[in-house]
Amino acid sequence: MSRSGYYEWRGRPRSDRAQENELLVKYIEQIHADSRGTYGSPRVHAELTLGLGMTVNRKRVERLMREAGIQGLYRRRRSWTTVRDPTAEPAPDLVNRQFTVDEPDRLWITDITEHPTEEGKLYCAAVMDAYSRLIIGWSIANHMRTELVTDALGMAILRREPETDTTILHSDHGSQYTSWAFGKRLRTAGILASMGTVGDCYDCETVFRRSSPV
After folding, report:
1. Which domains does the chain have, with CATH numbers?
2. Exposure string for 23-62, b = 16+ CB within 10 A, e = fewer
3. For the segment 44-54, what is each residue's pLDDT rounded down to a tens digit?
C-alpha cells in the first residue's frame, strides 16, 4: 500500500456500522455492570431487545461481547456429595424442616460440600448450630469417608459439650451419616440423630447457605 493510500484510508470517516457497534458495546457494558457481571449474551440480548426496544441480532451481541472480553457468570454443574446406602436404616426426621430454635445447642445441622482445587477435589464436612448459624465443627480431606464427618462432629462436641438427649443433629441420608461409626459417636455423646425425608435434597444445604463463619 502506498503512503498516500494509507493516509487516505486513515482519513476516511468511520462507517455507520462501526459507530453502531461502538454505541452497542457501551449499552452492553452498562447492562453487564448493572447485573454485577452475571449476565451472559442471552440475558444481555434480552435486555437490549425487550428492555430497551433495540433491534439487534443475538449473534451480533455474542460477537461484540467476545471481542470486548465481556463474559457472564455461568453456574458450574452440581456435583452430588450425598450417596445413600440402600441397606442402612435412616434416622427419623425430628426436625420436619423447622430450623428455627430458641436456644443454642438444641439443633445442629451437618453437611458435606465439595471444593475443586488445582491439586484435585477437597471435601469439607461442617456442623452448624441452627440457633446462631455459626459453624461449630469442621473437617477437610481429599475423600468422603466416614471419618470426614465424625471428625467434624468430634470438634463440635469438644467445643460445645452438649447435654445428653438435648441436642438434635440433622443430616441427609448420605452413607457417612448412616454408618455405624457415626451413629456410635452420636450415641456416645447423647446426641439425637435426625434425617430429612427422601426428596428433601436441599434440606441442609439451604440452611448452610445462610450460615456464618466461626
Report:
1. 3-68 (no CATH), 107-208 (3.30.420.10)
2. ebbebbeebbeeeeeebbbeebbebbeeeeeeebeeeebe
3. 998 898 878 88
- Per-residue HEC secondary structure of the chain comes to CCHHHHHHHHCCCCCHHHHHHHHHHHHHHHHHHHCCCCCCHHHHHHHHHHHCCCCCCHHHHHHHHHHHCCCCCCCCCCCCCCCECCCCCCCCCCCCCCCCCCCCCCEEEEEEEEEEECCEEEEEEEEEECCCCEEEEEEEECCCCHHHHHHHHHHHHHHHCCCCCCCEEEECCECCCCCHHHHHHHHHHCCEEEECCCCCCCHHHHHHCCCECC
Residues 101-158: pLDDT tens digits? 999 999 999 999 888 887 788 999 999 999 999 999 999 999 989 999 999 999 999 9
pLDDT (average), residues 78-85: 57
